[in-house]
Amino acid sequence: MSKYVINGGKKLNGDITIHGAKNSVLPLLAASILTDETIRIGNCPNLADVENMIRILSALGVQVEREGNYIEIKSGGLFAYEIPKRQAKELRSSVFLMGSILGRMKKAKVAYPGGCDIGLRPIDIHLKALSELNVKIVEKYGYINCDATRMRAANVFLDYPSVGATENIMLLAAISDGTTTVSNAAREPEIIELQKFLNTMGAKIDGAGTSCIKIEGVQKLHGTDYYAMPDRIVTGTILMAVAMCGGNVLLNGTNYTHIDSLISKLVKSGCNIAVKSDKICIQSSDRLASMGYIETGPYPGYPTDLQAPLVALASTADGTTILVENIFENRFKHIPELCKMGANIKVKDRIAFITGVKQLTGAEVVAMDLRGGAALVLAGLSAAQLTVVHDIQHIERGYEEMDKCFVALGADVIKIN
Ligand code: EPZ
What is residue 115's predicted lDDT score, i.e. its pLDDT? Predict the structure, then answer.
């Protein structure tokens, strides 16, 4: 298992370009099989999750070629509609392949993706929505067998604005008869991107970014060329790294409107942040003030994916921060690791009480999940002495060459395989 060895306490200075968004490229890749014409997607990051999705598509008979950050997809040879257990487990987000496989093949057999590091990750909202669209679902031997031959457009209400369930409905209803609406839909930027992408393929979808999305089914979709949006979680993670370590960094190729919930908190805690078109400049010199009370929530609320990095940031802020994790039930596994570095954090149920200390001290810590691992790297960058972050395969699922990214800004990080 690879690890990062971090010699902390250095300021971060320089400029960096933000890579494409994992949580947008994944549904775009799923959507690509809705046509047998060629699809090209640019700004696709080199991440384990993206490579897993490519492997799953290839196993279904889809031709997928990567040239640098461009991925070309030709699914004329799509012949299978089954996602086996190992692949479904390896990549939970393969669950929204259900919608696109059903949209194209009218049948799907997907192994239950099961839980992951941060929670049980049920898919009941997905299945309820699909059944409201008259998809016949039989759950047997750990597989979900779906039959969409009699799929009917409908008005679907989501009991919770699930990102994946919203994406699944958009993917299935894009090619259908009639108009489907999704009420209480997720409003994340990645949903807007999926709408834009599908519409460049000839779909007729409207309302993404609001709680009500309208999908007017069409008979066929065609190929397209698309450039994926920047990763808002990577942007937020780097902003918090600079806030913690001090320094002056310019982030290029990003979109500040996607994370204004974080930017406002960082400014309030003492950072200087300037934004212009696709750039964010952050300067941080003194110890930050605590960010008070924060709850994670569906977009445009504070993103759960930036909860762990914020806990790391709050660990060295001046004062107490109270953070409530409303989305996933097991997303505090980075906290015991941060406490090994001298953080003063108490947890009760889904509430973390973080009392900032002047500086963390280096330690051997273990990444338990993607965003928790990123939080440990941020803690190591700002801590005195050496920090070793083990099991960084979790981090590499969502951050492209995180070590090189911070070394380019003046940090001392070595990856040891
Ligand atoms: C997406 O996951 C993201 N993943 C997650 O990012 C992100 O944390 C999450 O949205 C919330 O923003 C991708 O886009 C690939 P949900 P998703 O369905 O679609 C419950 C990362 O770190 N729920 O909105 O799975 C669920 O248990 C990852 O990049 C049900 O109960 O999120 C959770 O508590 C982690 N039943 C909440 O809803 C369902 O059928 C949010 O889930 C579906 C979800």
Answer: 66
DSSP reduced 3-state for 267: helix
Supply angle C-alpha 390, 350, 296, rounded to 5.
Answer: 85
**Predicted structure pTM score:** 0.97
Cα distances (angstroms) measured from residue 271 to each of 284, 302, 354, 378: 5, 18, 19, 16
Contact 345, 353 (CB under 8 A): yes
- Report d(CA 304, CA 309) in Å as an integer: 10
181 - beta bridge partners? 155, 214
Q: What is the Å distance from ligand 1's center to 36 Cα? A: 29
Q: Which two three-digit tokens encode residue 77?
A: 């040879």
Question: Rounded distance, CA 409 to CA 163, Å?
Answer: 33
Q: Which two tokens stand for residue 2?
A: 């690879």
Residue located nearest, by CA, to atom 3 of ligand 1:
23
Residue in 22, 28, 160 to alter for ligand 1 test, most ligand atoms within 8 A of Cβ: 160
CB of 328 sitting under 6 A from ligand 1: yes
Instruction: Count each helix (H run) and each strand (E run) in the chain, helices first.
Output: 13, 24
Please name the residues in contact with 349: beta carbons below 8 A apart, sequence gap of 6 or more.
none
Q: What is the dihedral of CA 376, 378, 381, 383, to 10 degrees?
A: -70
Residue for token pair 């990577």: 234
Q: Is the Cβ–Cβ distance between 295 and 326 less than 8 Å?
A: yes
Give per-residue pLDDT as tens, 96-147: 899 999 999 999 999 888 767 788 888 999 999 999 999 999 999 989 999 9
Domains of the chain: 3-19+230-416 (3.65.10.10), 22-227 (3.65.10.10)
Instruction: Give the active site residues.
Output: 116
Does 19 score more than 80 pLDDT?
Answer: yes
Ligand 1 close to Cβ of residue 41 (< 6 A): no
Burial tier of 157 (Cβ tally within 10 Å: 0-12, 13-18, 19+): middle
For residue 77 and ligand 1, the question of a CB distance below 6 A is answered with no
